[in-house]
Amino acid sequence: MQEELRASEAKFAGILAIAADAIITVDSSHRIVHFNRGAEEIFGYAEADVLGRHLNILLPVRFREAHEPHMDSFARSPVTARRMGERREIFGLHADGTEFPAEASISKLVSRDGILFTVVLRDITQQRRAEENERFLSGASAELAQTLALDSTIAAIADLPVPRLADAALVDLVRGASYVRTTSRRHRPDLAEAMHTLGDHALTPDSPSPIVDAIRRSRAELTQDVDDEWLERYADPETLAAWRALGAQSLLTLPLVAGGETLGALTLIRTTAHGFDEGQRAIADQYAQAAASALQNAASYEAARQANRARDEVLGVVSHDLRNPLSAIAMCARVLEESSIDDAGSRRELLGTIRSSTETMNRMIDDLLDVANIERGRLSLELDAREPAELVLRAIHMFDVESREHGIRLETALPTNLPLVRADAARIVQVLANLLRNAIKFTPEGGEIRVSVERKDSSVVFSVRDSGRGISTEDQRHIFDRYWQSAAGARTRGTGLGLSIAQGIVQAHGGRIWVESTLGSGSTFAFTIPSAN
Q1: Fewer Cβ neighbours under 10 Å: the N or C end of the chain?
Q2: Quick one: which of 216, 220, 196 has its CA closest to 206?
Q3: Residues 213, 240: contact at Cβ < 8 Å?
Q4: For the range 223-226, what are the long-range contacts, defined as Cβ-Cβ under 8 Å and sequence gap of 24 or more?
Q5: Binning pLDDT at 50, 70 and 90, where does residue 154 land?
Q6: Does residue 313 lie within any of the structural domains?
Q7: Same domain, yes or no: 139 and 257
Q8: What integer pLDDT is reported at residue 491 of this predicted model?
């Protein structure tokens, strides 16, 4: 029986020893008499180091004074076991002095040798972190969903990770061939000046920053140790001082991907020595996914708003610009109907006004249809090998009469050794016609318009230069916007669609279009079309 008892006790001791939870027994004076392997792993002490020592070594200092009275009260109560932490959270103290949240229960055993207290304790740091992460993601998603305004959404994406995931954050969004940057505002005041400098400096496709790589590759970029060597290699020279003043120690850049498209990147900046562990990277990645979804929704909403504005603008064009030629046609028809005009010249003049007004209306309708097709990406092209000079001459011929009426000289510079271009002839003539029509509007009497063509690498460059008043830098930013028109120096006003349509046609050919102008020195509109060779 004694052997069986010893075997049973050994078995029971073995079970307690290998339990994953901490099992700690203390006597009536709160001295530790049992400390299992789970307790060693959780608290960081060896059993030999704690046996006989007071239980207080396992408690944060702020709880020690109140702990003994609680145990004494439990000893006097009729209850033999209960869960701890019902009125307040429980924390343990690692051997290295760091605290951790815990769940625990306590039981008592009264024997002939006195009372023994046994605590079963579990470290819930990971559980607590997971709960906090869930609350963070839930709260962040709710805040991102509060607005569909694009600017507000971008600002929220930069702010929400601070300070939960980082000390500061950057959001770099793709805008065509360039980037637009937004910085967090919730960072510490001592980081404000450096962050302001970083916010004023937008990245370019040629920037050495790993942010550009993260966007291009749609892959996270992690830098656990930002040192001088890293800054010299990857920071733009204009921002080097700001990065050093910021004191960044580690960076995590996450691409913002939604619907298969990389919209930009979120960069989390930590100024403390420790970097991003695996769990922190996982929660940051989940946040980036939620942010990208919110950003896509806001962008879609903004696109819908722009579409509504475009619709209103189209209605404005139809109601205003078509009214003039319609009025002219109605007036001429009324005169022809109500008056007996025997003069052939007068009749030709009225019929000419009707024909001219009809052509104007047809051109406006065609422009509106072209804009709609370009917007949907359905602009039809019939590509073939074409002589550049032939295309220019066809467009020039359309404006011979109009240019002479305004005393404007039309000149050409057409080399004979130009390669053929792969183009839709009618569409390229349409682009040149839009540029010429625009040039005539802004060129004063006695001025000159020169159309030239030259070869450049694997493309042919068409250019239309006028001797008008030029275009201000501010106006150049809007020159290809739909329905935008400059009110300065124009002989007549159109629909504001010509240059936008020209841009859409050129881009559909795989080329690009641009303007070079200085006030007082005229303007040059140029575009490229790939050669057919």
Answers
A1: N
A2: 216
A3: no
A4: 223/250, 223/251, 223/252, 224/250, 224/275, 224/276, 225/249, 225/250, 225/275, 226/250, 226/251
A5: very high
A6: no
A7: yes
A8: 45
Question: Is residue 465 assigned to a domain?
Answer: yes
Q: What is the pLDDT of residues 376-409, one digit of tens each?
A: 767 778 889 999 999 999 888 888 888 888 899 9
Q: Distance between CA 470 and CA 151 in Å, rounded? A: 33
Task: Give me the number of domains the chain comprises.
Answer: 4
Cα separation of 473 and 471, whole Å?
7
> Is the residue at 78 inside a domain?
yes
Q: What's the pLDDT tens digit per position in 441-476?
A: 889 999 999 999 999 988 999 999 999 888 888 788
pTM equals 0.56
pLDDT band at 113 (very low <50, low <70, confident <90, very high): confident
Where do the H-state alpha helices sit in 447-497? 473-476
Residues 6+ apart with CB under 8 A from 23: 16, 34, 36, 38, 39, 118, 119, 120, 121
Report the C-alpha gap between 65 and 156 in whole angstroms. Answer: 44
Peptide bond into 163 cis (omega under 30): yes
Backbone angles phi, psi at 23, to 5 degrees: -120, 115
Among 333, 348, 376, give the residue marking a domain's end: 376
**Cα→Cα distances 82→77, 119, 246, 501, Å:** 11, 10, 51, 78
**Residue (of 231, 229, 223) closest to 268 by Cα position:** 223
Please indicate, yes or no, whether residues 133 and 239 belong to a single structural domain of this protein.
yes
Q: For residues 342-357, give the mean pLDDT.
A: 78
Q: Which amino acid is at 357?
A: S
CB 191, CB 162: distance < 8 Å: no
Output DSSP code: residue 31: B
